[in-house]
Amino acid sequence: MSDNLLNFRVATIEDAGPLKELIQAAFRAEDSREGWVGLADLAAGFTMDVNEVKERISNPSSEVLVASDSDNKYLGCVGVSKHDENMARVSWLAVDQNSHRGGIGRKVLEHAEEYSRQTWGVKVIGLNALSARGPLIEWYGRRGYKKTGELSPFPVAAVNGRALPEGLCFVEMEKEVQ
Ligand SMILES: CC(C)(COP(=O)(O)OP(=O)(O)OC[C@H]1O[C@@H](n2cnc3c(N)ncnc32)[C@H](O)[C@@H]1OP(=O)(O)O)[C@@H](O)C(=O)NCCC(=O)NCCS
């Protein structure tokens, strides 16, 4: 599938290394928009495990979708997984750090929704975003996602004792895609 500038495909195991780098660099990228990144030092230390990417690619209930340009340069990616008969979940939405704010993220997210709807017949897409990232949560809102009211815990153990703001968590959001 292509979108003038973007070619979409399902990642294979050979993509795992470059995708790990893309995701890690995108999450670590600085951004002048207040609150977009949330906690800058937390984002700067974000690490991605290549084995997690491999596992997502090999698992029959999930995929990583890749967006590239006509020279096959990786521009973005997104993880999709079938949660149940009704719902798929989206994660690891990431755009090449030098291509942010160009509309790629919106297109990659739309592709993830369409892929999940067509492949698994789901009617709802779920995702979450860090509670400290207000503008990103609003961005998902403009893409049609609504807060479900549920909050998921932040994995405190993963940040080696760093002091975190009270109440830091993931805000759960959903969108109907039927
Ligand atoms: C989140 C992410 C994927 C978005 O990708 P992107 O290609 O930059 O997104 P888009 O260009 O489609 O949208 C950027 C938004 O910022 C807005 N924007 C652009 N320049 C801006 C500026 N100077 N000031 C304020 N907003 C601005 C755009 O208007 C757009 O919002 P809109 O489409 O509602 O109008 C990207 O920032 C990323 O890779 N971040 C790191 C990984 C991450 O945080 N993933 C999400 C985890 S939940």
Q: What does the overall shape look like?
A: globular
Q: What is the number of helical segments per DSSP (H or I, 4+ residues)? A: 5
CATH class: Alpha Beta
Radius of gyration (CA) equals: 16 Å
Low-confidence stretches: none
N→C terminal distance: 20 Å
User: Strand-and-helix sequence, N→C?
Assistant: EEHHHEEEHEHEE
Give the % helix. Answer: 25-40%
Structural class: alpha+beta
- Any idea what the CATH superfamily is called? Gcn5-related N-acetyltransferase (GNAT)
Name the ligand types: coenzyme A
Strand arrangement within the widest β-sheet reads 1-2-3-4-5-6-8-7
Strand content: 25-35%
Q: Any idea of the CATH topology? A: Aminopeptidase
- The CATH architecture can be named as 3-Layer(aba) Sandwich
How many extended strands? 8
Overall mean pLDDT: 95
Total number of distinct structural domains: 1
Biggest sheet features: 8 strands, mixed
Keywords: Transferase
InterPro entries: Acyl_CoA_acyltransferase (IPR016181), GNAT_dom (IPR000182), NAT_camello-type (IPR050769)
Domain N-acetyltransferase: 6-178
Protein name: N-acetyltransferase domain-containing protein
Question: What does the model show?
Answer:
It contains five helices and eight strands; from the N terminus they run E-E-H-H-H-E-E-E-H-E-H-E-E. The chain is an alpha+beta fold. The chain has a single domain, classed as Aminopeptidase (3-Layer(aba) Sandwich). A hairpin with a 4-residue loop joins strand 4 and strand 5. It comes from Bionectria ochroleuca. This is N-acetyltransferase domain-containing protein.
